[in-house]
Amino acid sequence: MAELEKIMEELSELSVLEAADLVKMLEEKWGVSAAAAPVAVAVAGAATEEAVEEKTEFNVVIKDIGPMKIQVIKAVRQLTSLGLKDAKELAETADSNVLEGVGKTAAEEAKKLLEDAGATVELT
């Protein structure tokens, strides 16, 4: 019984793509379709439900300030309430969070503003 629980735990950690690959492998090995393999279908369904959860909070991270430092610093000041010195330090520090825990729309707008200024930005 403990081995079955271990297998169940491992299967529940599969990504959607891994679950789909597992279903294909089982179909080929056993010569059945997914409809005849309810365990594989259940695993794929559980993995799909986890993947459907959409991220609601994002961090806006400057990866690289780029060649137009002044424009990026201005954009950082526009997005935050930082003074010139703090905004400059933030902009010049790679992998620094400009905004944390903001909504998707605000994060995308901030990313666009910073990228238009010349920075390389990532949403995490």
Q: How would you sum up this structure, described in words?
A:
With 124 residues, this protein is an alpha+beta fold. It has two domains: 2-52, Single alpha-helices involved in coiled-coils or other helix-helix interfaces (Up-down Bundle); 58-123, Ribosomal Protein L30, Chain: A, CATH 3.30.1390.10. 60% of the residues lie in helices and 15% in strands. It has six helices and three strands; from the N terminus they run αααβααβαβ. It has helices at 2-12, 16-30, 38-52, 69-79, 84-92, 104-116; strands spanning 58-64, 96-102, 120-123. It has a three-stranded antiparallel sheet with strand order 2-1-3, covered by helices on one side. Helix 4 packs across helix 5 (84-92) and helix 4 (69-79) runs antiparallel to helix 6. The protein is elongated, with a radius of gyration of 23 Å. It starts with a helix and ends with a strand. The model has no long low-confidence stretch (mean pLDDT 82).
List the main descriptive attributes of the protein structure presented here.
3 strands, alpha+beta, 60% helix, 15% strand, Ribosomal Protein L30, Chain: A, 124 residues, Single alpha-helices involved in coiled-coils or other helix-helix interfaces
Write a brief structural summary.
The two termini are 40 Å apart. Helix 4 crosses helix 5. The chain has a three-stranded antiparallel beta sheet, with helices on one face.
Classify the beta-strand content into a percent band: 5-15%
- The tally of domains stands at 2
Low-confidence stretches: none
Run of helices and strands: HHHEHHEHE
Helix content class:
55-70%
End-to-end separation in angstroms reads 40 Å
CATH hierarchy: architecture of the largest domain: 2-Layer Sandwich
Gyration radius over CA = 23 Å
By DSSP (H or I, 4+ residues per run), the number of helices equals 6
State the fourth-level CATH superfamily of the largest domain: Ribosomal protein L7/L12, C-terminal domain/Adaptor protein ClpS
Based on secondary structure, the structural category is alpha+beta
The number of strands is: 3
For the biggest sheet, the summary is:
3 strands, antiparallel
Instruction: Just give the CATH class of the largest domain.
Output: Alpha Beta
What's the arrangement of strands in the largest beta sheet? 2-1-3
